[in-house]
Amino acid sequence: MISRRKFIIGKSLCLTSMVPGAVLAQSSSSLREQTGVGQRFRILAKSELSGAMVSRPENPNEQVQKIQLRGESIFDFDETIIALNASGEVIRTLRNYRTAWMKRDLNQSVQEIRLREKLRQLVMVRKEIREIAFSPEEPLLWEEVDLLQTEVFPSALTGMLSKGSSEIQAFWKPDPSSLLELTDLESISSQDVKCRFESRGLINNRSIARVSFQGAVAGMHEDGPNKQLLDGYLFFDMDSRHISFMQMKGTSILLGKNGEEVGRIEGRFTLHRDLLPAVAVSAELVASTVPVPLNTRFLFRNQGVPYSFLYPRAWKITNIQGTQVALEHPQGASLLVAGLDTKVTDVHSYRKQAKDYFLNLKARVDEESPVQALSSNWSTFGWQVANGQVREYYQYYFKIGPKPFSVALRWGNSKTDLREDARLIALAIQATV
Predict the structure, then answer these.
(1) What kind and span of H or E run contains 238?
(2) Which pLDDT score is estimated for 258?
(3) Helix and strand element counts for the chain (H, E)
């Protein structure tokens, strides 16, 4: 599959019909961005991709399939810098979207995603080499997060610039963090990308430096071993001290276990980045854009499931079957949300049904907790189950009503206690039909 974070692995920033004027005198120049809280940019980014890749089935007996893919995306938004880290790097921004749209075609199966109207203002948090998007007012659907994670984080491209003063025709290696942002690799094993200060001239009466970059970078991608060929350039505005444009063609080569090519994706990306008047950033705005567990939750909503719920971002939807939705946590816990048969009339009959299941397996149920009320219509109980040498903990949540619901949490280590997550998921369940 295509990377979940990046819509295309090769990104490019495309130049419009601007013609440089007189070339300025060749002298040593600083190509470093000057970034501050309250600085604002108008961002317009477009991507295109096409290619083919071989699927990697988990079962070795399954037939290998070749996947043809095409796609495009458009993002248009204003971005305000909200916070920097101690090194002066941008770690949090506020975005006001005009457009956020993506279309993917996998073997003629088309998927199109747009950001909902109510989500036009979003926070983007950069942590290490990854970004987290959330809305302080409205939880995101997973597919909306998928959409937003296809974007490049413009402020992370500054590593393509030289760290000190450079003369025209000077070469340098880009910072690995910018290469990771451009390629969506999880780690880099080798790279021979070089940047070059090509020229400096006047465009629309502004002093503009042109920096090209070219080369190959290899590493681990979420789809496996990967090699990428990059060929692009950027414009650096010497007056406003910011990258105003970048263009890149990229080729992503997916590699097999023995280093053989199993897929190739060609991509183009264009980015325009215009400086806007700065704004004052209040302490209240800073506080409202800090990510916390409650404002970063996902919204689960599926056309075939008669209910919705909110869930913490660490959990992952792993299976949907009928009215049952399964989730897993990276710490080893699992959770099952289910719409129940209306014949289950109260929590005690539900408790007996759950206990009988383990007794039929000849397992021993220990450390039973009594039924406790969570709210006017939600109750909870739990126990430990010993089945041979395996001991696991279970906590159940039951909602009585015309449309009863249940949430079952299982975890195997007493230190991995996620009952608070399960409680919040249960209380957030809403019938949709």
Answers:
(1) none
(2) 85
(3) 5, 26
